Structures are given as C-alpha cells and as structure tokens.
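Reopening this ticket.

The earlier resolution said the output was attached, but the attachment link was broken on my side. Pasting everything inline this time so it's all in one place.
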Amino acid sequence: MTIMRLAIIMLVVCLFGQSSSFLVSPPIHGIVARTRDVRLEGMAQPEIQIKTKTKVEVQTKQKVEIKKKAKTGEPVSRNEEDFQDAPMFKLMLLSDDGYDGEHVVTRMCAIMEDLDENAAATVFQQAMQEGKAMCGKYPFERAELFKEQLLRSDPMIFADLEEENK
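Inline output:
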C-alpha cells in the first residue's frame, strides 16, 4: 500500500511541480534541502520531505617532469646525410635541313629561360655546321622536359640528351 501512495504522490508532485509552492532552502554544510508543500483536497496529506546530498570529490594529479641535462662540453650530434649532386645531362640540338632558323631560335628562347637570342642563334649555327650542338647542362628531369617541348613544337625541333661524363 505504501508503494501505491508513493506513486500517487510522485504523480501529483510531477503535475503540480511547476507551482509557486516549490521552496529551496540555502545549503547547509554541502546539503541542499528541498521541500515541496502540496495540498491535496479530499485526500490524506502525506508528510514527506525530499532531501538530496551532493558530494563532489576532485582529485588532482601531479605531473612529474624529468629533464635530461646535456653536458656543456659535448656538441649536439645530428644525423648529417651526404647528398650527392644530381647527374647533369647535356641537351643537344640536332641539325635538320628543314629547320627555319628564326623559328628554332624563337622556340629555344621560349623553352629555355637561360638562353637569350644571341646564344640560341649561335647554338643553331653550330648545330647546322657540326650536326649537333649543346644547348645547356641540366638535371635529367629538366633536360627531358626541354627535349619533349622542342619535339612538340610545330614544326618539330629534334633534340637529344647525353650524359655529362661521356
């Protein structure tokens, strides 16, 4: 029977919980006391006070730092890697009877930034006389790029790559 009464009381408290009869007393030594004064007409008046305790414990952890001291007389050693220079390749302009000198010089200046018109004209004349002439020395990827750009010119300009040590 007492469980039934508690259930009814809780139902009534929930329904009338928003009323102005909800009182909160100040906390006493960490205990918060709440009292609800609900008057039920025509029913037995229960005398129940709901009290709740809230206890919060905060634990702190201390961090321990361990510092390693380096001796002042010892130099700090770092891994030093030995880098090798990239192998250089010669970009060679090959001669062809179908070349238009002005077109070849213009394309060489547009593709290779380090060549001016006078140097490009000299390379072109040397290639026409000797069969091939060196345009410059570059790392493999860059030399291959210049060769492909010359080959894609319209009309096509023939070029080849040679290793610098040969």
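Reporter confirms the inline version is readable. Confidence is low (pLDDT under 50) at residues 20-25. The helical segments are 2-15, 101-111, 117-130, 140-151.
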